[in-house]
Amino acid sequence: MTCIRLHVTAEGQTEQAFVRDILTPHLATFNVFADARAILTSKDKRAHKQHRGGLISYQKARADIVAWLKQDDHAECRFTTMFDLYALPEDFPGFADAARNTDPYQRVSIIESALFQDINDRRFIPYIQLHEFEALILADPQRLDWEYLEHDRPIGNLLHMVGAQNPELINDGPQTAPSKRILKEIPEYDKVTAGVSVAQRIGIPAMRSKCGHFAEWLHKLEQEGCVA
Predict the structure, then answer these.
(1) Are residues 78 and 184 in the same domain?
(2) Number of folded domains in the chain?
């Protein structure tokens, strides 16, 4: 019995930490063993250093994904992404077609399908987060009190704003995207230092129950399981 190794190309350090601290322990119970690295953005050949993090362009992301596919070409490997739809570079495959669609789920479906075709490897499972990482935080804004004490009123405002709606459907306007709504209420919110710890408190079950596209991705990864 050979178990699945899952390599995640993450947009930045927060997504990388999310995979390491939250997704990896969960998927291990399904015999899927994940690791992650942020997108390679540049290299300093003199210092033998790599700089990772930040979705600058599709070509940068593609080069990093393809390099990893070649580095680990075993059949039991799977590869995926964790990129935000919010501020996604316009050179992504399918971007123009997706932009003409008003349904967010159709938009990510178009981009993910085009991305899969462009990478052209059956082991690749593309994922675009609707609309950004903070949608997962808004699955249960109350948990922000873990990092931000004495913020009862701002957290209450976020709870009222989200209500019973799907946080993935909160739009991606420059002032109204999930992160912007959190920052409006909690200006000191820092995604890198607080985002993952809050997400840990929220937990996988709450995030998947509120965030449909995230739940679909998670189910796909769980289903990979082990291969004989």
Answers:
(1) no
(2) 2
